[in-house]
Amino acid sequence: MKMLISKMFPSRGVSAGVVQGAIAAALLAGCGGGGDPLSNPGNVSNPSTTGGATLAFPYFEKCIFPIFLKDLPITQNGVTSTNTCAGAGCHDSNTGTGGALRVIVAATPVADADLAAAATDSATATAIRATDMYKNFYSAQGVTIFGSPLQSRLFDKPLVLNVLHGGGRIFASQDDPNAKLINYWISHPVPKGQDEFSTSSYSMFTPADPATGTCNTQ
Q1: Per-residue b or e along 151-167, where b marks 16 or more CB atoms closer than 10 Å to that residue's CB
Q2: Any idea what the Cα angle at residue 196 is, between residues 193 and 201, rounded to 5°?
Q3: pLDDT at 92
Q4: Which residues contact 101 (CB under 8 A, 6 or more apart)?
Q5: 75: helix, coil or strand?
Q6: Alpha-carbon dihedral of residues 26, 28, 32, 34, nearest 10 degrees?
Q7: What one-character DSSP code corresponds to residue 167?
Q8: What is the span of the domain harbouring residue 81?
Q9: Which of 28, 47, 180, 196 is the most buried (most CB within 10 A)?
Q10: Which is nearest to 83 in space by CA: 168, 21, 164, 189?
């Protein structure tokens, strides 16, 4: 008995290329490709993000920046002298040699009215971000780990806590009033989704107003 084996051929008028294209489309769809196999893939878009971590600018200007200008006792190799953090040879923006922190001594304070306006007015906030005071804020914030003073160079270097400090020991202990201010600033980042001028940081003052309040430390 002879076995008949049928063979499939494209019907007249249908080219082999069309058949192959149909097969390729079916295979792509089966793999999850879908759509037109000959078209370009869709654009890849990065998901948008909102908010970001930052420390409070009002507290920096009112409570932290003044520390950089104070005459402070410095103990180095058993010898105590006085100097400022922003002094020449330390962290002065022009002549300093002291690590990443840079301080512009002559930075003009931001007016209280502008500081308040920046919380709601983007143009005022943008203008402040172009000032020398903001450059000081940005530099100081850059040597911190938000929420973790003991991992922050701005806090542990002046105390020589498991890290060397070319300027010697500035604060005798973590109970030093200046160390407490730095600790408090780093420990209280602005709530997620709000910027550095947010009024949420006003609670860091008593009363809760940067213009009239005193700097909290606890």
Answers
A1: ebbbbbbbbbeeeebeb
A2: 90
A3: 78
A4: 85, 91, 139, 140, 142, 143, 153, 154
A5: strand
A6: -80
A7: T
A8: 57-215
A9: 196
A10: 168
Lowest mean pLDDT of 59-73, 76-90, 99-113, name the range. 76-90
Q: Exposed, middle or buried, 170 (CB in 10 Å: 0-12/13-18/19+)?
A: buried
CA distance 205 to 202: 6
Q: Which two tokens stand for residue 92?
A: 């002065």
Is 192 part of any domain? yes
Q: If phi over 0 gives left and psi between -120 and 50 gives alpha, with beta otherwise, what is residue 191?
A: beta
Residue 8 belongs to some domain of the structure: no
Question: Which has the closest alpha carbon to 154: 131, 198, 185, 120?
Answer: 185
Q: Name the nearest CA neighbour of 73 among 62, 83, 64.
A: 83
What pLDDT is stored for residue 49 in this prediction? Answer: 32
Angle (CA) 72-77-81 rounded to 5° is 25
Residue 7 lies in a domain: no
Q: Is residue 34 one of the residues assigned to a domain?
A: no
| Amino acid at the residue 159 | L
pTM for the whole thing? 0.74
Cβ(171)–Cβ(179) below 8 Å: yes
- pLDDT-derived band at 52, boundaries 50, 70, 90: low
Cα-based angle 203, 205, 210 (whole degrees, multiple of 5): 105
